[in-house]
What we know:
Blueprint: H1 11-14, H2 20-33, E1 40-44, H3 50-57, E2 61-66, H4 69-80, H5 96-101, H6 104-113, E3 126-129, E4 141-146, H7 157-170, E5 171-182, H8 184-190, E6 193-198, E7 202-211, E8 216-226, E9 232-242, H9 246-255, E10 258-265, E11 278-285
Parallel strand pairs: 1-2, 1-4, 2-3, 4-5
Antiparallel strand pairs: 5-11, 6-7, 7-8, 8-9, 10-11
Amino acid sequence: MESYTSFAKVYDMFMDNIDYESWGTYLIELLKEYGVKDGIVADLGCGTGNITTILSRAGYDMIGIDNSAEMLAIAMDKEKSGGQYNDELADVIADEEELNDNSAEEIADDSYDNSVDESEDKREVLYLLQDMREFELYGTVAAVVSICDSINYITDYDDLVTVFKLVNNYLDPGGVFIFDLSTKSKFEQIGESVIAEDREESSFIWDNYYYEDECINEYQLSIFIKGEDGRYDKFSETHYQRAYSLEEVKSALTEAGLEFVAAYEAFTHEDVKEENERIYVIAREVTK
């Protein structure tokens, strides 16, 4: 599973078309609807912490989990600067050299050490550098969420079951699991295409390919970031996502011991339709 590296530096800049506040509001409504009004919530694939921060502001004790040190560095810098996100935050990331000097354990430990400050009346996020297929927590949580296509990056069905089993393991009795998915319909619409965006400080070219037989979407990113000398440095990454049918998701949840509760067209309570580009799935730990 490819993690964001070079693209992390400009992720928030190019994702400024996403209305994270509305996404967060919808997610909070779902959490409360299914009984999670407070407590600890783990955010799998938290990225630069946009959704994590919104849930934290809403009163949840947040744990953000991601396998990209670069993305977590930005999330932690946001945390230090008040949890705000905007275009300028693309410049806040720590130097790659510094990131390379830190091990996964050191970054996780730094996040944990900063997560509790009894001298201030505020909530701070615990960020952990972990692969969601192997994540470990110190105890159980009231809910696990995973938003913005993170589950799509699990391209092997057996790995999907593994992730769901870990979620089940760390949920409180009756705890809730909410995640979104980009759908086959969305990937089919993008198909084989080229997406590009040119800005003063950074540009990207996105070469997209969808392999219908495998339900795998591949995109090759070429990123151009303006340096202090005015020249542009080029970085390249390749990412893979899988489109899962709702029946596959239900099967994986059942194998993991979770109860499927509902699936909605994104940002609604409408039943899932074939043409939906994004759906939300709600599952629950089965209290024995």
